[in-house]
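Per your request, structure below.
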């Protein structure tokens, strides 16, 4: 049980078809060096044995609580977790990921100094890759937004960050359930609007694994285009609206993200064999409006810059060229959308 006399942390775990990884995830959470936690498992209508595994873990540890719902997506699951949480601070962990035993304590110890604390992370694959900035300490607002919006260093994910629940509650911040791609980014950016200080912990203590069946990736497949990916356009619109009062540097980073997201949406459509002239027009509008800002940001690849430029002229041309490239197996487009 939580000790009400101490500061406490709620860890929210959305779960969808994660039976292969769930034991490792939950084991890493309950064996934290900081023990004053509650673990909220939001089971999102899995079709495998995930719910049964959750029930077994609930029997083992009184800090674990389960909520089951019909499949409604990761945003709904996380919002349910926020609603049911009791901790002063919130953490989000995906069910196919896991964390270092010092994860909670390392972030918690810095929360007295900042409104959000962020750590580095590792991509779990055949060759593990650590993603770090290189320096620990407080970040300027411009550096923070650059690494959240433009690079994969801090990333827009909610999972390597500790949040203050009172900010989320007082400002009624939620994950948008109508956005299936980029919902993390919108949540994080909206939260940052009410933060005064930001601390970066230069430790790769969150371990990220890509699982195509997870609650995070259930709406995305590089092999078959899922129309929910079109919500990426809604994500762009939300980001622009949320940050309209930010300084010019931050707004430039948002414009970069708009073009980058448009490029990736087009590549997803090419790979998924999905053409839609209405979406093409929206992609062209985003790119024409923001491309000059996009090319001034030191991020992205030469290939992406070329694609972005061509999208300002003719998305239909880019689509047809992309289909030719795939058919001829001339260029691996998939790596640019992962």
């Amino acid at each position: 049980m939580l000790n009400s006399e101490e500061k406490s942390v709620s860890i929210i775990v959305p779960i969808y078809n994660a039976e292969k990884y769930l034991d490792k995830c939950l084991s890493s959470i309950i064996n934290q060096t900081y023990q004053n936690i509650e673990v909220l498992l939001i089971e999102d209508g899995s079709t495998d044995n995930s719910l049964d595994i959750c029930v077994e873990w609930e029997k083992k540890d009184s800090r674990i609580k389960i909520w089951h719902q019909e499949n409604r997506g990761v945003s709904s699951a996380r919002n349910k977790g926020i609603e049911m949480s009791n901790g002063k601070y919130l953490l989000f962990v995906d069910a196919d990921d896991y964390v270092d035993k010092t994860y909670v304590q390392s972030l918690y110890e810095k929360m007295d100094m900042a409104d959000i604390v962020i750590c580095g992370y590792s991509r779990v694959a055949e060759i593990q890759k650590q993603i770090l900035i290189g320096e620990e300490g407080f970040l300027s607002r411009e550096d923070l937004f650059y690494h959240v919006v433009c690079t994969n260093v801090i990333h827009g994910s909610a999972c390597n960050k500790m949040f203050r629940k009172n900010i989320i509650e007082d400002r009624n911040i939620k994950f948008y359930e109508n956005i299936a791609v980029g919902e993390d980014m919108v949540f994080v950016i909206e939260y940052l609007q009410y933060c005064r200080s930001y601390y970066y912990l230069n430790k790769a203590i969150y371990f990220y694994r890509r699982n195509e069946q997870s609650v995070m990736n259930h709406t995305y497949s590089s092999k078959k285009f899922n129309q929910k990916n079109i919500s990426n356009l809604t994500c762009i619109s939300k980001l622009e609206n949320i940050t309209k009062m930010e300084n010019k540097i931050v707004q430039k980073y948002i414009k970069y993200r708009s073009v980058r997201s448009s490029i990736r949406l087009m590549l997803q459509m090419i790979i998924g064999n999905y053409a839609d002239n209405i979406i093409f027009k929206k992609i062209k509008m985003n790119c024409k409006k923001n491309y000059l800002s996009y090319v001034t940001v030191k991020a992205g690849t030469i290939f992406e810059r070329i694609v972005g430029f061509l999208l300002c002229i003719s998305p239909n041309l880019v689509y047809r060229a992309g289909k030719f490239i795939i058919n001829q197996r001339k260029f691996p487009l998939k790596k640019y959308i992962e």
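The radius of gyration is 20 Å.

Regards,
D.
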